[in-house]
Amino acid sequence: MLCLRGQGVVKGYAIGRAAVMGAAALEVVHYRIQPEAVEEECARLKAALAQARDELQHMVANLPDDAPREMGALLTVHSMLLDDRMLSEQACNLIIERHYNAEWALTTQGQVLGEQFAAMEDEYLRERGTDIRQVIERVLRVLSGTPVALPQFDSGYSGELIVVARDISPADMLRLRGARFGAFLTDLGGPTSHTAIVARSMNVPAVVGMGNIRTLVRDGDLLIVDGMSGAVLVNPPDFVLEEYRRRQAAYADDRAELGRLKYAEAVTLDGVQVKLEANIELPEEAEQALAAGADGIGLFRSEFLFMGRRDLPGEEEQYEAYATVVKAMQGRPVTIRTLDIGADKTLDGDATVATNPALGLRAIRYCLAHPEIFQTQLRALLRASVHGKLRILVPMIAHLHEVRAVRQAIAEAGQNLESRDISFDRNVEVGAMVEIPAIAIAIEPFVEQLDFLSIGTNDLIQYTLAIDRGDNDVADLYDPMHPAVLRLISHTINAAQRYGKSVAVCGEMAGDAQVTRMLLGLGLREFSMHPQQLLDVKKEVRQSHTNALRVKVASALNRAERINLDELAG
Ligand code: PEP
Ligand code: MG
Q1: Alpha helices in 62-101 (DSSP H)
Q2: CA-to-CA distance for 240 and 234, rounded, in angstroms?
Q3: Ligand 1: centre distance to CA 456 (Å)
Q4: Are 45 and 53 contacting, i.e. CB atoms less than 8 angstroms apart?
Q5: Each residue's pLDDT tens digit, 484-536
């Protein structure tokens, strides 16, 4: 038995036969054309780009109703890349200036763009280099007249097939989704790759970043896939197979039980009502939040509307995006965070590189330094507030003068709307992210001046422990359970409760079912997380007793001891 490992990005088990997808990269012939053939070669390239774009647009227009939500957006991004001048014009220039043939020019320019993406700090944008490669492969196929090679099927085999590929483009995923696949395994990709995004929305186990599984596995090999640990077992013996069949069945039972919880209330054994909300990054995800039974949107990371593009979204575009979410949530609260740009999330074309970006001009600091960008966003937010219950959340607050400046900026945006006779909710609530230790330590005046708080544990941990959250070398020191972090969370929750203000946790901790009891013990009653984590957390809530937890957690905190999560269980 061979045991391979990658990054598990969609949980679940699969047992089935390998179906290996043909090499994605095509053989590309390089030759120089005659000077008189330049025009014709450019025309050939442009025709292929247009055909590839037409194919993608046709797919978008004819998406099946049950296609994963992200599919349309991903295919549209691909068709937009085909329109991008950086790709088509520069490739044509290579034909004109160096007399490369169309395929050579296209792959050369693709490499240039791919390297630019690969050098980006932000993981999400780095992954977008994959889009360039996939788009180019599609055009190369048009140029050579070779269709995509889908996995071969053995007609005699009735069990599940497991797709093994170098990587899978969104368009290929669309073609694959109709078939009976048990899991997706790819050599390339990370948690934000297309395979991961689409597999997650299809709820099919997936392991990415496997390195070279395509060369190690043959069609028909028996595979066990563990989407949790990222392990893939090739041709396992019977006793291992039995064990994984048992785990697969237990997991399916667990999921079925969780599914039933969707309509159950998030109430503890001692009758305490808990609010479970969703974190989203794009407006379309509101539907998923609603489907998971979220009580509202606890964090809409608005910066994703600004990233991966060269221009800034205007007031109208932002208004549409915010209004879409507010309307979709049908009166439930929608907390939209103002632009949290800087550090690991950068705007395209923003050339400034701070020596220490995490401590630099990020989030609210950036917005206050760029009033025109901030005002546009605030006007869009206020306009969207008429459609339901919209709350404005401000990231990285550390000073009271920042709170005052934000209130002032909101008033100014309101005056602008008034002068244009546009209505908005004048009582829109304004809250702050608690993610810098300074605000957590000196929280009282902030609570007084704000309507609500949301604890961003991802950054709070980073700044409290001086651990760069994106640096693998210190990842083992990134410790959500450090007593100092827990004291800051506890202090913030207590202060908010004393002042009768709402307080949530919206960092990753909120969605980790292993720490749900601990957070309940700290007094937390509002959690905001990825929609897929909601039912696991609800299950924990429904099995907890807050009074008992409060006593146990308080006594450990008083002694500044690490809390033993096992002691909180059961
Ligand atoms: C956080 O810091 O916990 C948070 C929710 O914000 P982000 O992860 O977007 O920085
Ligand atoms: Mg943060």
Answers
A1: 69-83, 85-98
A2: 11
A3: 5
A4: no
A5: 999 999 999 999 999 999 999 999 899 999 999 999 999 999 999 989 889 99
Q: Is the CB of 435 under 6 A from ligand 1?
A: yes
Candidates 485, 497, 532, 483; CA nearest to 272 is 497
Q: Using a 6 Å cutoff on CB, does residue 456 contact ligand 1? A: yes
Ligand 2 centroid, distance to 316 Cα (angstroms) = 26
Tokens representing 480?
A: 């959500």
What is Dmax (Cα atoms) for the chain? 84
Give long-range contacts, CB 8 A cutoff, 24+ apart: 102-105. 102/41, 102/42, 102/44, 102/45, 102/48, 102/143, 103/28, 103/29, 103/30, 103/140, 103/143, 103/144, 104/28, 104/29, 104/30, 104/31, 105/45
552: Cβ–Cβ under 8 A, 6 or more apart, which residues?
521, 563, 567, 568
d(CA 529, CA 508): 7
Amino acid at 62: N
Specify the pLDDT at position 24: 45
The DSSP bridge pattern shows strands 13-20 and 222-226 to be antiparallel
Q: Which tokens sit at 265? A: 């209330």
Residue 242 has pLDDT above 60, yes or no: yes
- C-alpha distances in angstroms, 19 versus 120, 197, 223, 226, 545? 34, 21, 10, 17, 48
Is-catalytic flag, 194?
yes
> What pLDDT shows up at residue 125?
72
Distance 455 CA to ligand 2 centre (A): 9
Tokens of 35: 């000077």
Which region among 356-360, 392-396, 462-466, 480-484 has the lowest average model confidence (pLDDT)?
A: 356-360
- Ligand 1 proximity of 303 Cβ (cutoff 6 Å): no
pLDDT digits (tens, 9 = 90+) for 289-307: 999 999 999 999 999 898 7
CA distance 536 to 528: 13
The whole-chain average pLDDT of the chain stands at 89
The model's pLDDT over 152-172, given as tens digits with 9 standing for 90+, comes to 555 567 788 899 988 887 777
For the CA of 458, the closest atom of ligand 1 is 3
What is the residue with the minimal CA distance to atom 1 of ligand 1? Answer: 456
Can you give the length of the chain in residues? 570
Ligand 1 neighbourhood includes 301 CB (under 6 angstroms):
yes
The vertex-93 CA angle with 90 and 97, nearest 5°, equals 145
DSSP code, position 32 = B
How, if at all, do strands 297-301 and 502-505 pair? unpaired
Ligand 1 pocket member 340 (CB < 6 A): yes
